[in-house]
Design a protein that fits this description.
Distance between the termini: 13 Å
Number of strands: 2
Number of domains: 1
Largest sheet: 2 strands, antiparallel
Radius of gyration: 14 Å
Strand content: 5-15%
Number of helices: 4
Oligomer: single chain
Length: 122
């Protein structure tokens, strides 16, 4: 079932979301200042393309991850998470959209603090 949902997700917007995160990762990698967030952007890209059957877990809870996540939250995380929450609310109105809404909630949680997280199979 998760394969079918991932295919539908990818066709109906996951490709665009994943491509945007890959572009963001490349831009962050080019700048020296954005280099610490590059792996998190690529992690978000993969999770944005194929979210069904995968979960986000804490990998590293060090001080550096905390500092990077605070900066990320202030500069970009809160409005990216807000976008995912608004999309989730719109999708949750229909019964068919509920699984997709849940994935947007998971993406919102990852968008708030992506550094120090890992995406693993469920």
């Amino acid at each position: 079932m998760s394969l079918l949902l991932n295919i539908l997700w990818f066709i109906l917007g996951g490709f665009v979301s994943g491509a945007a995160w890959i572009l963001a990762g490349v831009i962050l990698a080019i700048t020296i200042v954005g280099l610490p967030w590059t792996p998190a952007a690529f992690r978000m890209a993969g999770f944005s393309c194929w979210p069904f059957g995968r979960v986000v877990v804490d990998r590293d809870a060090g001080a550096a991850s905390l500092l990077l996540n605070i900066l990320w939250f202030v500069l970009a995380g809160w409005w990216l998470a807000l976008q995912h929450i608004l999309l989730a609310a719109a999708l949750a109105v229909t019964i068919i959209g509920i699984p997709f809404a849940w994935q947007h909630v998971k993406l919102a949680a990852l968008a708030l603090s992506p550094v120090g997280k890992a995406v693993v199979p469920a």
